[in-house]
């Protein structure tokens, strides 16, 4: 009985040491991965990297990690217009089946899903933020974006009709959608400015789009909807480069 007790104690101690070693190794790997992603994506700060699953060391031995979660506070995405960028906030990506290169210099996820937010002040820059003439004596400009509830957004249009600025902006409930790599905003109905204007004329102000390109690892836009702080997006991808 004493020998068995000693063996059990040794097993518990060794198991505890393995857990400690495993956690030390995963923390080191997370730090190294964060630095690698920062360099690869040109970030100003290290992202949050969390390697899920236990034990970590056996996953490394197999050459594949089950689940790696990456969080980037602010990411500058390309807009397809010269060097112009648009800030994407709180990007969280869940990478599944992360496979290492033979030299551990790069890693690729078989699949990835994630969420992020395009702040309304960032998206506003894509709208007609300067006064636009829509007909003789009538001009309009988008001066604000906010949540419209139920996944829609509210577009605030300031208008001048026959030299008189309307006393307050006109609110236009709009639907936001994805078409390829572009976020599109389209008014559910055109605003009433107190003057008869063609629908396509007013839509030249109320409707707009914003291309979102060059997201981390090659992930792509999937769905969008209006949220409290901005347009909430979901992303997905396959064979996504985590680093390298």
UniProtKB/TrEMBL annotation:
It comes from the Bacteria. It comes from Streptomyces acidicola. This is DUF2993 domain-containing protein. It holds the Pfam family LmeA.
């Amino acid at each position: 009985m004493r020998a068995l007790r000693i063996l059990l104690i040794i097993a518990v101690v060794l198991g505890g040491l393995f857990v400690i070693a495993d956690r030390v190794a995963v923390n080191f790997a997370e730090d190294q991965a964060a630095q690698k992603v920062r360099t690869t994506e040109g970030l100003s700060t290290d992202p949050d990297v969390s390697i899920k699953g236990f034990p970590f060391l056996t996953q490394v031995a197999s050459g594949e990690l089950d689940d790696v979660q990456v969080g980037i506070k602010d990411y500058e995405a390309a807009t397809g217009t010269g060097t112009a960028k648009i800030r994407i906030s709180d990007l969280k990506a869940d990478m599944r089946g992360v496979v290492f290169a033979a030299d551990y210099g790069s890693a690729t996820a078989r699949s990835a899903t994630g969420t992020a937010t395009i702040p309304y002040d960032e998206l506003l820059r894509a709208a007609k933020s300067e006064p636009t003439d829509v007909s003789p004596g009538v001009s309009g400009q988008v001066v604000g974006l906010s949540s419209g509830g139920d996944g829609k957004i509210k577009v605030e249009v300031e208008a001048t009709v026959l030299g008189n600025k309307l006393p307050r902006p006109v609110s236009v409930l709009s639907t936001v959608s994805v078409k390829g790599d572009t976020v599109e905003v389209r008014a559910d109905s055109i605003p009433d400015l107190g003057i008869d204007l063609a629908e396509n004329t007013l839509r030249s102000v109320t409707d707009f789009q914003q291309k979102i390109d060059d997201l981390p690892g090659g992930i792509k836009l999937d769905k969008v909807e209006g949220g409290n702080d901005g347009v909430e997006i979901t992303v997905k991808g396959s064979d996504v480069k985590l680093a390298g």
